[in-house]
Amino acid sequence: MRELPELFSGFRSETIEGDGTDIFCRIGGEGPPLVCLHGFPETHAMWHRIAPALAARYTVVLPDLRGYGQSGMVGAGADVTAYSKRAMAKDVVAVMNRLGYSSFRVAGHDRGGRVAYRLALDFPEVVEKLALLDIIPTAAMWDGITVQRALAAYHWLFLAQNEPMPELLIARAPIQYLDYTMAAWTKSGNLTSFDERALAHYRAFYKQTERMHATCEDYRAGATADWDDDRADQEAGRKIAAPTLVLWGSHGIPGHGIGPLRIWEDWAENVEGHEIESGHFLCEEAPDETLAALLLFFEEPEADEDAPQ
Predict the structure, then answer these.
(1) Domain that includes residue 236, residue range
(2) Is this structure's pTM higher than 0.70?
(3) Integer Cα distance of 279 and 71 in angstroms
(4) Measuring CA to CA, which of 56, 105, 178, 191 is 20 to 30 A from 166?
(5) Residue 288 sits in a domain of what CATH number?
(6) Which one of the listed residues 64, 91, 110, 229 is annotated catalytic?
(7) Is 110 among the catalytic positions?
């Protein structure tokens, strides 16, 4: 990948072995560990507006999910579970263990939010606090498909189609597809909310045919393995144990209907949250409000001076 604009001054770059593939990370700051996971069709670069402030309080780890950005891809012939959220969650655990952390806070946006809540369900001892940005659970999304939702979230059905249909169509104009998709999910309906340097990261990644294919595999896993895993948790009565924050955009897809907070109350034991005036890309469209909510949620509780020592 050609030289990309620098967005994280003071952060270091590392490529760390995950659970079967290498994971590219930017790491910065000091303090308790906080993992921030990106969504589609972006990379770790989506955190550039708020990561420096988070790094003033936390050791911030920004991975590219497998198949995305500069992380490794799964070899040809792998089945759809290779891009499941369970597989991606195992990557995160492996990376953090190799960095010396057995537990951590985690924030996830979009597909990264799905990895984050799968992480909290599969590895409850690992996730201290969980923040989910502009998503509802995968099972709730599929179970709640209506004509209106299918039109708004058509990419869920399109990208999950059998190979090579979506790949063939997107490959004709990948950058145009990426730009159109991202603009359509903003409150403004255009790309003015994004830093051109961040867009350069997203475009450089997405125009690589094999990586664009990996994102389709991500959505195919969402329509199969991820949905199955969610249903298994529901049937077993498992809930997210970690304190959970849910944030969503006023003009995002999840905000339609009964609202994300009400849905997540059925999935998490201790959940709070609120709407932010934004489209789907909270960290780039409304960075100040998103940062404030995350800092308040993740902060350490003050010690009680009167408590016995």
Answers:
(1) 12-298
(2) yes
(3) 27
(4) 191
(5) 3.40.50.1820
(6) 110
(7) yes
